[in-house]
Each structure stands twice: as structure tokens, then as C-alpha cells.
Write a structure and sequence with these properties.
The protein has about 110 residues and is an alpha+beta fold. Helices cover about 70% and strands about 15% of the residues. It has one domain: Metal-sensitive repressor, helix protomer (Methane Monooxygenase Hydroxylase, Chain G, domain 1), CATH 1.20.58. Helix 2 runs antiparallel to helix 3.
């Protein structure tokens, strides 16, 4: 998948097979905000480890980060299905559909 940036529309373009889809700034911002929170949470867990905090609490916090990452993946997947995959089906783009299947296999491991 290739990525192009269009400074005029402030959107993210990507190509599946022979079609392109534009992601809105709102969609990108929502995912970036979720990722930023997860990164901040991981940094705080790293500080917990450095401070020799309780291992049980560290595990609980790691589970919270894992959940946040999984939820972020769900948001990306829903956006992808509702936009890119709908277009791929309409255009008969089997490559994009196979790429989604491969990504789901990796995501749900």
C-alpha cells in the first residue's frame, strides 16, 4: 500500500489495487489521539518498572494498554471497512479484500 499526502485537502490517501481512498482529518485525529494516550500510558508503566512498583499493578496497567491498542485497531478496522473495503467491493478490487483478510489474521492473533 502506498501513501501520498495532499497538503490542500489535509487528508490521507492510500491505494488498494487500482483505487484510492481519502481519510478525513477527524478519522486520523481520533486514531492519533488514541495512539498518543497509549504511548503515554506505556511511558508511565516504564516509570513504574524503574521505580520497582508492584508487579501486579504493572501487569494490570499493561493489560489496560493492550486493551487500548486493541480498541484503536477496531477503530481503524471499522474505518477501513466502511470506506476502503466498500469501495474495493464496488470496484471488484480483490487485492484490497485479501489484504484486509491478511491484516485481520495478524491483528486477532
Amino acid at each position: 500500500m502506498s501513501h501520498d499526502h495532499d497538503d490542500h485537502t489535509h487528508t490521507h490517501l492510500h491505494t488498494h489495487g487500482f483505487h484510492r481512498h481519502v481519510h478525513s482529518d477527524a478519522e486520523k485525529k481520533a486514531v492519533i489521539n488514541r495512539l498518543s494516550r497509549a504511548i503515554g500510558h506505556l511511558e508511565s508503566i516504564k516509570r513504574m518498572v524503574s521505580s520497582d512498583e508492584d508487579c501486579s499493578q504493572i501487569l494490570i496497567q499493561l493489560a489496560a494498554v493492550r486493551s487500548a491498542i486493541n480498541n484503536t485497531g477496531k477503530v481503524v478496522l471499522k474505518n477501513h471497512i466502511s470506506h476502503c473495503i466498500v469501495e474495493a467491493v464496488e470496484q471488484g478490487d480483490e487485492e484490497a479484500i485479501q489484504a484486509l483478510n491478511d491484516a485481520i489474521d495478524r491483528f486477532v492473533k
